[in-house]
Amino acid sequence: MVQWFTQMRDVPSFDADLLRRYDRAGPRYTSYPTAPQFHGDFDAASYREQARRSNAHSPARALSLYVHIPFCRSPCLYCGCNRIITRDQGRAERYVAGLEREIGLVAPLFARARTVVQLHLGGGTPNFLSSASLGALLACLAHHFRLSEAPDRDFSIELDPRFIEAGYVAQLARLGFNRASLGVQDFDPAVQRAVNRAQSIAQTRTVIEDCRAAGFRSINIDLIYGLPRQTPAGFASTLSEVIAARPERLAIYAYAHMPRLFKAQRRIDPAELPDREGRIALLRLAIETLRAAGYRYIGMDHFALPEDDLARSQADGGLQRNFMGYTTHGNCDLIGLGMSAISHIGDSFGQNFRELRSWEAALERDELPVWRGRVLDLDDVLRADIIQRLMCQGEIDLRAVERRYGIQFASYFRSALQQLAPLAADALVELDRERLRVTARGRLLLRIVAMCFDRYLPQTAAVTPELYSKVV
Questions:
Q1: 1-33+378-472 placed in CATH 1.10.10.920
Q2: What is the pTM of this model?
Q3: What's the CATH code, domain 38-337?
Q4: Rounded mean pLDDT of 376-401?
Q5: Dihedral (Cα; 403, 313, 156, 181), 10-degree rounding
């Protein structure tokens, strides 16, 4: 399996006609079941029970922490993240105090011997926090959890280059961070005006240089295609500037215009958005440009240099996918901290309250701020395993699945195989009695393949058809 995927991973076949025909809405599968299947029956008591079971079953299993920092100084109109627009630094200090209360409630649920090998601060804008607030947060985490000091630990933070003072990145390194993800989206001034995000190349280069000087071992750049006023010429210029900085990883996201769900997007003029042909042209430009520059296509919207841990992990079969995207540390319990954060403990998901006031109110009562979640049944676990393997390795060993779960694949997944039939006819997948493989033609349509195994999708899509973005 690994040998096959090593050969195929960096050569997705681009077929515009296929992309047009299969460009429909679907989940991104950072979890299965996906968040719409979470429910309020999963509460704080459920979370505590799942933590207890995890300790009993895997007392030495490593931990991954995600901390959500919701604050942004100004709204980027394309954004669909859960964030709060403010310039009041006092709100950040109060929020960190709340995080410290939550950490104090959550950490004792997990055995002290369990080491945190991955930490990620996302948002929002994590660098909204002052150096002092960030230092206090890391000190609290270090007091309550056993933070890894190993060279291969993965401590990362999302940064907005527009709001970083001199010395801030060096402080991040002193606190233990060794990876950074920088939002860029597009350097074209016309696009930046359309989405309310003015960001210069010089600002971005300075932060990248500061990260290199501070010893960060990996930098990721986020770009978006399909934004208003975006053109192939302008996007090509952005790609050229980014490649010149040689980040170890890039994420090229498709803009999802969903104004019914995200109020800020209502300020974007739909007439200024590229049409489907324009979006496909931008995607093709990105793929071909990055391949020529030596980046490997990891999957979905992620690219990495061959020597980066992400590419190496995919090559040896260890790549995982979770709420932070593709990761090399998937075999961990994931603890989400902060408003809206999602945890993945054992065979369960738990999500915190999305609204700041509800999250704060629970903590003021010394309660875990758990809003909803789900305990996975055996069918969920099986399908989650299959979808994970498809999204990360592009192949399923059918006989291994049968042995692991005690099923007959063809019988158990009769409906999924029926849905796969037209994909096989279009050569997106190859299927025999031993294996299901995603072909080079299907690499850009991984979500479509995974959707065949999602038993909840037909009902969810029927009730809330606007919930998911298009796959292209």
A1: yes
A2: 0.94
A3: 3.80.30.20
A4: 96
A5: -120
